[in-house]
Amino acid sequence: MAVAKKPVFVRVAPGISLGYRRNETAGTWVVRVADGKSGAWTKRIGIADDHDESDGHTILTFWEAQILAKATARGNEACTTNRAPMTIEAAARTYLSSLEARNRRTAYDARRRLERLFLPHFGANKVEDLTRRQLEAWRDGLVNVGHDAEKHRRSQDTANRVLSIIKALLNHAISDPSSGLKDDSAWRLVRPFQRVARAREVHFSVEEVVRMLQICDDPSFRDLLIAGFLTGARYGELAACQVRHFDLIGESLHIPSGKTGSRTVILQPSAVTFFQRISSNKPKEAPLLARSDGTQWGASHQVRPMKRVLLAAGLDQTGTFYALRHSYISRAIEAGVPLTVAAENCGTSVRMIETTYAKVLASRRRDFIAVGAPHLADTVAFTNPSQETE
Asked: Are 296 and 249 in contact (CB under 8 A)?
């Protein structure tokens, strides 16, 4: 079946129809019930087993969906067969499927964190059996208890990030009436560690970026570094760009998918020249920035080359490819680019820039006022006119 906004229905009982809606990911089951007044009401009752095996709860076969449709129509959703309690793994699978339909990169990151740090310990557990004490013990177990204060802080920050994903997937599960879940206190009452998040502090000056480019012996990675510094785009955003996304006439680069959705990056002249060079004589569907073998840059492919370049250039080893984005925004602020323009170009918010780059803004505050605040010409005499008349 083709992807469609409206479901296709089949009658399963008098006045009751089961509908299937084909989505880009897993399809969904919908029940339609006649109200006896020439009308009907509809309700989404579950996810189809298109990509995952049925769990008898939120992911249903055609036959299980029929049973639930009839029970829902008769106001007795609890009286369904094969309705095993939802496991955390099933809840995570459903949540990630929904998240992937909205943002594939965010879903990929969430899946990796869950599979590495949470699901091995809790995947087989039932959601309804979770306790606050269990989650707090798991959270505390991620914390580095050594004497290194920075490692301690970073581990707490990591725990907070994973906890936010866990809360999101569990809230997604309880928001579905068919899940049968009623109490969210087990995760709602678990608090994150306070004041452990910290803005990324590593950024590079123009001179440092030039040093990295001069010492980089991989032309394909050098182009990636240049693109990162000239656009402020995230690594994954650049990796997803194809030649067709560069607009020479409009002097812009379209980001097809990013953390905040698609956007258009306005390019300054040197960036236009750079992208014109690397895109010439390439098919429109080819990667705009390809690896040395012509393939697309993938997840984490930039990590090791970045470490080698930083080491060879004698720069801060805690720096990452993201530091190029940090550098772009910092240099733009220093040059007086309006925060709204910088935010739109980088796919973030003015509030985030004000929070993350507070130090840069503070250091430039006097310069901004000196250049942009209202002033009077030097020839104006600051004297009292009445005194001149006397």
From this structure: no
Three-point CA angle 142, 144, 148, nearest 5°: 160
Contacts of 137 (CB under 8 A, 6+ apart): none
Side chain identity at residue 271, one-letter code? A
Residue 257: name the closest of 102, 130, 124 by CA: 102
Q: For the chain, what is the largest distance between any 2 Cα atoms, rounded to a whole number of angstroms? A: 102
Q: Does domain 206-372 bear CATH number 1.10.357.20?
A: no
What is the pairing mode between strands 16-21 and 263-266?
unpaired
pLDDT tens readout for residues 204-252: 999 999 999 999 999 999 999 999 999 999 999 999 999 999 999 999 9
Asked if 163 and 191 count as a contact pair (C-beta separation under 8 A), the reply is no
What global pTM score does this model have? 0.59
Name the nearest CA neighbour of 26 among 62, 69, 59, 65: 59
Q: Cβ neighbours of residue 13 under 8 Å, at least 6 residues apart? A: 70, 73
For the 88-188 domain, the top CATH level (class) is mainly alpha
- 3-class SS of residue 7: coil
What does the block give as tokens for 251? 């002097």
Rounded Cα distance between 230 and 139, Å, is 39
- Fold matches, 88-188 and 206-372: no
Q: What is the pLDDT of residues 260-310, one digit of tens each?
A: 778 999 999 999 999 999 999 999 999 999 999 999 999 889 999 999 999
- Angle, CA of 17, 23 and 27, to the nearest 5°: 50
Helices (H), the chain: 62-73, 88-102, 104-117, 119-122, 132-141, 149-174, 185-188, 206-215, 219-231, 235-240, 269-279, 303-313, 322-334, 339-346, 350-356, 358-372, 385-389
Amino acid at 326: H
CB hemisphere CA count around 373 (13 angstroms): 6
Domain ranges of the chain: 8-73, 88-188, 206-372
Q: Are 352 and 343 in contact (CB under 8 A)?
A: yes
**Separation of alpha carbons 169 and 21, rounded Å:** 23
Exposure string for 233-256, b = 16+ CB within 10 A, e = fewer: bbbbbbbbbbbebbeeeeebbebe
